[in-house]
């Protein structure tokens, strides 16, 4: 009787842990960002807890970024330009634009244009596109503030 209860308890705990793992993994999104600005850019991602990540992306190159709460993109022009994207400006990407992957982070693709707009690209895109496709709601994302200087 005691052994049966321990087995059932162990099974229940395993199911709960698997559920937590799968639901948290689904929220993990890696975005392949293509730089179509014509200049090198530095992308700063910020989250509400104060975590900061910075990526430098050469012109016509790409980098894999995590999804962040707030963004700043600094374009290495003369004079330099900084695009600010406040919380909610870069929306969570709709499922049809994400790769299906239940065990690891899901993947998306985006492209930054010379005016700071961020376009979502089809999953699996491997290069800059001349004309982005139909966009999900909230895209292309436009900077909330532009600083030149």
Give your account of this protein's structure.
It is a single chain. The chain is elongated and about 75 Å long. It starts with a helix and ends with a strand. With 149 residues, the chain is of the alpha+beta class. The protein has 1 helix and 9 strands. 23% of the residues are buried. It has a 5-stranded antiparallel sheet, with no helix packed on it. A 4-stranded mixed sheet has the order 4-1-7-8. Helices cover 17% and strands 34% of the residues. The chain has a single domain, classed as Sandwich (Immunoglobulin-like), CATH 2.60.40.
Show unreliable segments.
19-26
Lateral arrangement of strands in the main beta sheet: 3-2-5-6-9
Count of individual beta strands: 9
Structural class: alpha+beta
Strand content: 25-35%
Secondary structure layout plus pairing:
Blueprint (H helix, E strand, L loop, with lengths): L1 H26 L1 E7 L5 E6 L5 E6 L4 E5 L3 E6 L5 E5 L20 E7 L5 E4 L23 E4 L1
Parallel strand pairs: 1-7
Antiparallel strand pairs: 1-4, 2-3, 2-5, 5-6, 6-9, 7-8
Task: Briefly say what this structure is.
The chain is an alpha+beta fold and 149 residues long. The protein is built from one helix and nine strands.
Which key phrases capture this entry?
single chain; 149 residues; alpha+beta; Immunoglobulin-like; 5-stranded antiparallel beta sheet; 4-stranded mixed beta sheet; elongated
């Amino acid at each position: 009787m005691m052994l049966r209860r321990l087995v059932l308890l162990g099974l229940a705990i395993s199911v709960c842990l698997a559920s937590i793992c799968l639901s948290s993994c689904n929220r993990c999104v890696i975005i392949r960002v293509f730089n179509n600005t014509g200049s090198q850019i530095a992308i700063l991602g910020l989250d509400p807890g104060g975590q900061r990540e910075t990526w430098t992306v050469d012109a016509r190159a790409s980098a894999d970024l995590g999804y962040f709460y707030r963004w700043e993109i600094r374009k290495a022009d003369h004079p330099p330009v900084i695009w600010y994207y406040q919380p909610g400006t870069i929306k969570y990407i709709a499922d049809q634009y994400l790769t299906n992957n239940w065990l690891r982070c899901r993947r998306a693709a985006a492209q930054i244009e010379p005016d700071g707009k961020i376009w979502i690209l089809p999953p699996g895109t491997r290069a800059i596109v001349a004309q982005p496709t139909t966009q999900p709601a909230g895209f292309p994302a436009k900077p909330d503030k532009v600083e030149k200087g």
